[in-house]
Design a protein that fits this description.
CATH class of one domain in chain B: Alpha Beta
Membrane topology (chain A): Multi-pass membrane protein
Largest sheet of chain A: 6 strands, mixed, barrel
Structural class of chain B: alpha/beta
Main location (chain A): membrane
Number of strands of chain B: 10
Number of helices of chain A: 24
Subcellular location (chain A): Cell membrane
CATH superfamily of one domain in chain B: P-loop containing nucleotide triphosphate hydrolases
Structural class of chain A: alpha+beta
CATH topology of one domain in chain B: Rossmann fold
Bound molecules: adenosine-5'-triphosphate, magnesium ion
Keywords (chain A): Cell membrane, Membrane, Transmembrane, Transmembrane helix
Mean pLDDT of chain A: 83
Family (chain A): Belongs to the ABC-4 integral membrane protein family.
Oligomer: heterodimer
Mean pLDDT of chain B: 83
Distance between the termini of chain A: 33 Å
Radius of gyration of chain B: 17 Å
Chain lengths: 871, 247
C-alpha cells in the first residue's frame, strides 16, 4: 500500500499530540492484554512438577537407596519400577560403603523422608517430615528460607511456609513420632513441590531411622544424595544395581528427555467463546475513542483528500491509528503482563507456600494474546476508517455538517441473531459453559446490530421529555454511528455481569449449594469435632463449652478407637452405600464411622431412646445402623493405624442391627468396655449438644466458637441450623466491576458525544441558553447511553445466567461427616433460579443516574468561543 | 513520470489549455430546495496563465475551483484536465489526478499540523508511492523555490501565516503539477504577506503553471493575466487585466 509510511507517521505524531486520548486507547487495549498475559504466564508459566521423582535433586547428581540384600535388582530410569523384595529384613548400606562403590571423589549425605505423626501445642498433625542437612550445598535449590535460620543441630526443624500456624511457628517445640522426639522450629522455608513436599525438615539425627518406615526405593524413604565429580551414567546405574542400590541420576534423566508434554492451558474450542467476548468488548470500548480521533481530525483527512489522498489512502491513515495503538498497547501490555508475572513470583510462591517450578514464559500463548490486541485495535479503527474514506472533503472544509448518512444498523440481521442466540442459549442450558457463552455471544452480536434501531426507538420515546433530554436523545440518534458502539460496549459488560450475578445467586438459592453446606449432624445440634486434640486440650475445650451452656445440659462424648499407644485407628465398617473415592470436604474424623460411647451417644446417633439398642450396647454388642452388613450376628471390621508402622487387623464383634430415625449419625456404636476388652484404647474426638436436650442459641454457639478457637486451631465448631445464603459478596464483587465498567465506558462515550455536539451547544449558548443547559445536555447524553445499555444488558443477561445456573452438580461429590461417615451429594439436585435484585437495581437505576451526575459535574460549563470556520 | 523536474522547466504551452471547462452547471440539492451554484460556465486556463476569479459572496467561485480540480463534479457540462475528461473518472482516479495534475491552496489551515513542513509538502508524492527520501528531496527543492528553504523541519504551528501559505503553494506544485487552484489564499493575511503570496503565484505562472486564483481584492486582480467575474453562477465579464500598468 503506497503511503503506509506516511500514514503511520501521521498516526504517530497525532498520538503524541493528543496524549489523553492516546493514553485512554492504550489502556483500553493494553490492560486486557496485560491481564491476559499475566494470568497466562502465572498459570501456564511454571513448568510441570516432575511427578515421577520422589525427592528433589537440588545440586546433587544422584539419589541412591539400597540394602545389601537387594543385590542384582533392576530398575527403570526414574526408579519407579524396581524389582526388589519388600518385607524381608534389610541391612542398609552405610555412607562409607556407598562412597567406595561410587566414582572416586564422590560425596554423599543421608536423606530420609516419611509420613510422621507429630504433636503441636494445639493437637496432633500428620505429615511428611524430611531429615536432611539443608545447609549442605547439595540441598541448594530445594528450598528458600523466609524466616529464622536453618537447623544446625539434631532436634531443630524448619517448618514449611504452607504449614505455618501459631502452633507450628519458630520458637515452638513439637514432638514427633511414637518416641515423641522434641523438634524445635527455628525457621520457615518454601519447599520445592517435587515428591511430597515436607511439613517439616529436620536436622540429621533428630529422628531415628525407624520413624521413616521401612526401607523403600519407591518412596525414597532412607537414601543418600550423591555429589559426583562426573555424571552418573546408565552404566553406573546398572553397576550399582548389581550391588543392591537403586539410583536416580540427573544425567540419566536429562538424557531420557522430558516426559511427553501434557497439554498446557485450555483447548481452543473451550477458550474461543471467551476470547471472542473479550475481543468484542475491547473493540466496542476502543471504537468510540478512535471515532473521536477521526472527528477531531476530520479537517486533516479532508486536506489529505484534497491533496490527492484516495479513499483507500484515507482508510489506511485511519487504520494506521488502529495498527499503531494495537501494536504499541499489545507489546507494552504483553511485556508488562509477563514482567508482572515474573515479579509476582515471590509473592505467588509465598501465597502458595511452596517454591514454584522454573518459569518458562509461554511465548506462543502470549504472542497470540498480543496479536489479538492488534486485531482489536484494527477492528476498533475499522468503522472510523470507513467513515473517513466516505467523508466529503469539500463539505468538511467549508464547515458544512455532513448529511447523516448513518444507516439504521441491520435490524433484520440483529433480530435473526438475537432469536437464534436466545434459542441456542435455552437449548444449551445445563450443558457446558462454553456452549452457553457461544450462544450468548451470538445474541450479543445480534444486539450490537440492533443497537442503532434501539437508539432510534428511544428517541421516539424521548419526544415528550424536557429539552436537555430530548436534545440528548435526538443527538444520540443523529449520530448513531457513534452512539451505537458506546451503548453496545456498556451493554456487553452489563450482559456479562448480569449473567454471572444470576448464576451466582441461583447457585446460592440452590441450597445447600456446596458440599460443606450439607447437614453433618441432626438439625439444631451443636458439635465440636477435634480428632487431633490431646486429652488435655479436650479438658479445656469441655470446660469452655460448659461455661457457656446452662447447668445440667448434657454433653454427649464421642470417642473413637486408638492403638494402645494412642495412634488413631481407621475402622472400615462394611457398608452398602456406593463407593466414592473423591472426598471434597472433610471435618476429618478418621474413625470410619465406628463410634465409642454410652447411652447418650446411642440416643444421639439413633435420634430416639431405644431400649433394645441400649440393652445390646450393655451386652457388649456393636449397635450397627445398617443391619444388612451383619453376617451371622457378627460385624467384621478392619482396623488400620492412621500413622506409623502396622498393617490393618481384622476385628469381629457380636452385633445387633438397629435402624436409626432418619439417616443416623454413625455406622456403628460400641461401648468403651468392648474396646478395652479387644486391646484398644479410646480418645475423645467430638462433643455434641443433642438438640433433644438443649437447642443451643446462635449467640452461645458463636461464643463457644470464639473460645475454642483461642484454645486450638485444630477443632471445628458448628451449629446445625440452616443459614440464609449470604449474597453480599456478589454485590461487592460484581457491583465494583459494574461501577468501573459502566461508569468508565459511559464517561468516554459521553465525552465523545459532547465533543461532537459542541457546535450545537455553542449555538445554544449564543442564543442565550444558561451554562447549566450544557451540563444538563451532557448529563442527558450520559443517561441515554447508560440507561439504554443497562436495561437491554440486564434483559439480555438473564437468559445465559439462567442457562448457566441450570448446570447442576454433574459428578457425585462426597464429603466426610465428623462422625466419620462419608456422605454423597446427590447428582443433579433440582436447579433453582434467583435474580440478584440488588445488582439489577444498581445496574438499571443507580449507575445510570451516577453516570448522568458525573457527566454534569465534570462538564466545563463555560463554553469556548466558537472556532473560526473557513469557507 | 516521477522524474525530478522543477516547474521552471515545464514543457512550453502547446496551445491546449491545462484545464478546459465547457457549459459547467452545478446544482446542490433537488426540487424546490435546489441551489444553482453554477449555471453554464465555460473557462480555459492555459499554462503560464494566472486567471483571477472575482465575484460577490455565494456567486460560485469556490464551486468553480472545486470542479476544476476534480474535488466536486459538475451536474452538467464537461471538465478536461490536461486533456482528460473528468466525468468518467472513478473517485480513485480523481484522487490520483489531484496528486499528479492539480494542487489546491485554501484560505488557511492548509497544512496537516502533525507533520513538518517538508513532510506536508512531500505528502502527495508519498501517497503516490514515491519513496520517503526521494519525496523529501523533491519537497525541499520546491520549498526552496517558494523561499522556504530553511524551514522544512518546522511544524506548521511554528510558521507565520504567509510562510504557511507559501508551504501550501509548494505542496500544491510538488510533483510537476501544472494546475494551481488557490481559493482566497490571502484572505487570512495582512497586506504585505498577501502581496508576497501573489508574487509567488505570479512567479509560478511565469514558470509555466496554470493558476486559477479566487480573490476579493481588486488589487491582486491586477497581477492576473485575465480576470473572470462571476455573479449568480454565471460569468458576467472577462477582461484581460492591465498587467503591465499594475506592475
Ligand atoms: N453542499 C452545498 N449544498 C447546498 N448549497 C451549496 C453547497 N455548496 C455551495 N452551495 C451554494 O452554492 C452557492 C455558491 O457557493 P460557493 O461556495 O461556490 O460561493 P463563493 O462564491 O465561494 O462564496 P464566498 O465568496 O462566500 O466564498 C452558494 O449559494 C452556496 O450556498
Ligand atoms: Mg468561497
Amino acid at each position: 500500500m503506497s503511503g503506509l509510511r506516511a500514514s503511520l507517521r501521521i498516526s504517530r505524531r497525532n498520538a503524541r499530540r493528543s496524549k489523553r486520548r492516546s493514553a485512554l486507547i492504550l489502556v483500553m487495549i493494553g490492560l486486557p492484554v496485560a491481564l491476559a498475559a499475566f494470568v497466562l504466564t502465572a498459570v501456564l508459566g511454571p513448568g510441570p512438577v516432575p511427578d515421577r521423582q520422589r525427592y528433589p535433586f537440588g545440586q546433587a547428581d544422584a539419589l541412591v537407596i539400597g540394602a545389601h540384600e537387594w543385590a542384582n535388582l533392576s530398575q527403570d530410569a526414574w526408579a519407579e519400577e524396581v524389582s526388589w523384595e519388600p518385607g524381608r529384613k534389610h541391612t542398609p548400606f552405610t555412607g562409607a560403603e556407598i562412597t567406595t562403590v561410587l566414582a572416586p571423589g564422590s560425596r554423599v549425605i543421608p536423606v530420609a523422608q516419611g509420613n510422621v505423626r507429630y504433636l503441636t501445642p494445639e493437637g496432633y498433625g500428620i505429615g511428611q517430615i524430611r531429615q536432611v542437612d539443608l545447609r549442605d550445598p547439595m540441598s541448594r535449590g530445594t528450598f528458600r528460607l523466609t524466616d529464622g535460620r536453618l537447623p544446625a543441630a539434631p532436634g531443630e526443624a524448619v517448618v514449611s511456609a504452607a504449614m505455618l500456624r501459631p502452633d507450628m511457628a519458630p520458637g515452638v517445640t513439637l514432638f514427633a513420632g511414637e518416641a515423641r522426639r522434641p523438634l524445635r522450629v527455628v525457621g520457615v522455608a518454601l519447599f520445592d513441590l517435587t515428591g511430597t513436599p515436607p511439613d517439616l525438615t529436620v536436622f540429621p539425627g533428630s529422628l531415628p531411622d525407624t520413624a521413616f518406615g521401612p526401607m523403600n526405593p519407591l518412596l525414597m524413604s532412607r537414601g543418600w544424595l550423591v555429589d559426583s565429580p562426573r555424571p552418573v551414567t546408565w552404566a553406573d546405574v546398572r553397576r550399582l544395581n548389581a550391588r543392591g542400590l537403586a539410583v536416580v541420576s540427573r544425567a540419566v534423566l536429562d538424557g531420557a528427555g522430558p516426559d511427553e508434554p501434557s497439554p498446557r492451558g485450555p483447548s481452543l474450542p473451550q477458550s474461543a467463546p471467551w476470547v471472542a467476548i473479550m475481543l468484542l468488548e475491547v473493540v466496542l470500548l476502543a471504537g468510540p475513542a478512535f471515532a473521536m480521533g477521526r472527528l477531531r481530525r476530520s479537517r486533516e483527512f479532508a486536506l489529505v483528500a484534497v491533496q490527492g489522498g484516495s479513499p483507500a489512502h484515507l482508510r489506511t491513515i485511519a487504520l494506521a491509528d488502529g495498527l499503531l495503538f494495537g501494536v504499541a498497547a499489545s507489546v507494552v501490555g504483553a511485556a508488562l503482563g509477563v514482567g508482572a508475572a515474573w515479579l509476582a513470583r515471590p509473592a505467588l510462591e509465598r501465597r502458595a507456600g511452596y517454591l514454584l517450578p522454573a518459569l518458562t514464559v509461554p511465548w506462543a500463548v502470549v504472542a497470540t494474546t498480543a496479536a489479538l490486541g492488534v486485531v482489536a485495535g484494527l477492528l476498533a479503527a475499522l468503522a472510523p476508517a470507513v467513515a473517513a474514506s466516505r467523508a466529503d472533503p469539500v463539505a468538511v472544509l467549508s464547515g458544512r455538517r455532513e448529511r447523516g448518512r448513518e444507516r439504521a444498523g441491520r435490524p433484520l440481521l440483529g433480530i435473526v441473531l438475537v432469536v437464534a442466540g436466545t434459542a441456542a442459549t435455552i437449548v444449551s442450558g445445563g450443558h457446558e459453559l462454553g456452549w452457553i457463552a457461544t450462544s450468548a455471544l451470538v445474541t450479543q452480536l445480534g444486539l450490537v446490530a440492533l443497537t442503532p434501531a434501539l437508539v432510534a426507538a428511544v428517541a421516539r420515546l424521548a419526544a415528550r421529555l424536557p429539552l436537555p433530554l430530548r436534545f440528548a436523545a435526538r443527538d444520540a440518534v443523529r449520530n448513531r454511528g457513534r452512539t451505537a458502539p458506546a451503548v453496545a460496549a456498556v451493554m456487553t459488560a452489563v450482559v456479562a455481569l448480569t449473567a454471572v450475578g444470576v448464576t451466582w445467586q441461583s447457585r446460592l438459592a440452590q441450597k445447600p449449594a456446596y458440599a460443606q453446606d450439607y447437614p453433618k449432624a441432626p438439625a439444631g445440634a451443636l458439635w465440636i469435632a477435634g480428632p487431633d486434640l490431646t486429652p488435655g486440650l479436650w479438658d479445656r475445650v469441655r470446660s469452655a463449652v460448659r461455661e457457656e451452656l446452662p447447668g445440667g445440659v448434657p454433653l454427649v462424648e464421642v470417642r473413637t478407637l486408638t492403638s494402645r499407644s494412642g495412634v488413631p485407628m481407621y475402622a472400615s465398617v462394611p457398608d452398602t452405600a456406593p463407593n466414592v473415592s473423591r472426598v471434597e470436604w472433610s471435618d476429618a474424623s478418621q474413625s470410619g464411622g465406628l463410634l465409642v460411647g454410652t447411652d447418650d451417644l446411642l440416643r444421639y446417633v439413633l435420634r430416639r431412646d431405644d431400649p433394645r439398642a441400649v440393652a445390646a450396647l450393655h451386652e457388649g454388642k456393636a449397635v450397627v445402623l445398617n443391619p444388612a452388613v451383619i453376617r451371622d450376628g457378627q460385624l467384621r471390621i478392619d482396623l488400620t493405624p492412621v500413622a506409623g508402622p502396622g498393617d490393618s487387623v481384622p476385628l469381629t464383634l457380636p452385633a445387633a442391627g438397629v435402624r436409626a430415625n432418619g439417616e443416623g449419625w454413625a455406622r456403628a456404636v460400641v461401648a468403651p468396655e468392648v474396646a478395652a476388652k479387644n486391646g484398644y484404647a479410646t480418645v475423645t474426638t467430638m462433643l455434641v449438644v443433642d438438640p433433644a436436650d438443649f437447642r443451643t442459641p446462635r449467640a452461645t454457639a458463636e461464643r463457644i466458637t470464639a473460645k475454642v478457637e483461642r484454645i486450638t486451631g485444630k477443632a471445628t465448631v458448628r451449629l446445625e441450623v440452616p443459614e440464609a445464603p449470604d449474597d453480599t459478596i456478589i454485590l461487592i464483587v460484581l457491583g465494583i466491576a459494574a461501577a468501573v465498567l459502566v461508569l468508565g465506558m459511559t464517561f468516554v462515550a459521553t465525552m465523545l458525544a459532547a465533543a461532537e455536539a459542541r457546535p450545537d451547544l455553542e449555538t445554544m449558548s449564543a442564543v442565550g441558553a444558561a451554562p447549566r443547559v450544557k451540563r444538563a445536555v451532557v448529563a442527558g447524553q450520559a443517561l441515554v447511553i447508560a440507561l439504554l445499555a443497562s436495561v437491554t444488558g440486564v434483559l439480555a443477561g438473564l437468559a445465559p445466567g439462567i442457562a448457566a445456573a441450570r448446570q447442576g452438580v454433574s459428578h457425585p461429590v462426597a464429603f466426610l461427616r465428623p462422625d466419620g461417615v462419608t456422605t454423597i451429594v446427590p447428582v443433579g439436585a433440582a436447579p433453582a433460579f434467583a435474580i440478584p435484585w440488588a445488582l439489577v437495581g444498581l445496574l438499571v437505576v443507580v449507575l445510570p443516574l451516577l453516570a448522568a451526575l458525573g457527566g454534569a459535574v465534570f462538564t466545563r460549563s463555560r463554553l469556548p468561543l466558537p472556532r473560526r470556520r473557513v469557507t | 513520470m516521477t522524474e525530478n523536474r522543477s516547474p521552471d522547466r515545464l514543457p512550453a504551452p502547446d496551445g491546449e489549455p491545462v484545464v478546459r471547462m465547457t457549459g459547467v452547471v452545478r446544482v446542490h440539492g433537488e426540487g424546490t430546495g435546489a441551489v444553482h451554484a453554477l449555471r453554464g460556465v465555460s473557462l480555459d486556463v492555459a499554462a503560464g496563465e494566472l486567471v483571477a476569479v472575482m465575484g460577490p459572496s455565494g456567486s460560485g467561485k469556490s464551486t468553480l475551483l472545486n470542479i476544476a480540480g476534480g474535488l466536486d463534479r459538475p451536474t452538467e457540462g464537461s471538465v478536461a484536465l490536461e486533456g482528460r475528461e473528468l466525468r468518467d473518472l472513478a473517485p480513485k482516479q480523481l484522487a490520483e489526478l489531484r496528486r499528479r495534475s492539480a494542487g489546491y491552496v485554501f484560505q488557511d489551515l492548509n497544512l496537516v499540523p502533525s507533520l513538518t513542513v517538508a513532510e506536508n509538502v512531500a505528502l502527495p508524492r508519498e501517497l503516490d508511492g514515491v519513496r520517503t527520501a526521494k519525496a523529501r528531496r523533491e519537497a525541499l527543492a520546491v520549498l526552496e523555490e517558494v523561499g522556504l528553504a530553511d524551514l522544512g523541519d518546522r511544524f506548521p504551528d511554528d510558521l507565520s501565516g504567509g510562510q504557511r501559505q507559501r508551504a501550501a503553494i509548494a505542496r500544491a506544485l510538488v510533483g510537476e503539477r501544472r494546475l494551481l487552484l488557490a481559493d482566497e489564499p490571502t484572505g487570512a493575511l495582512d497586506t504585505r504577506a498577501g502581496d508576497e503570496i501573489i508574487q509567488v503565484l505570479r512567479q509560478r505562472a511565469d514558470a509555466g503553471a496554470a493558476v486559477l486564483l479566487v480573490t476579493h481584492e481588486p488589487r491582486y486582480a491586477a497581477w492576473a493575466d485575465r480576470v473572470v467575474f462571476l455573479k449568480d453562477g454565471q460569468i458576467v465579464d472577462s477582461a484581460a487585466a492591465g498587467m503591465e500598468t499594475a506592475r
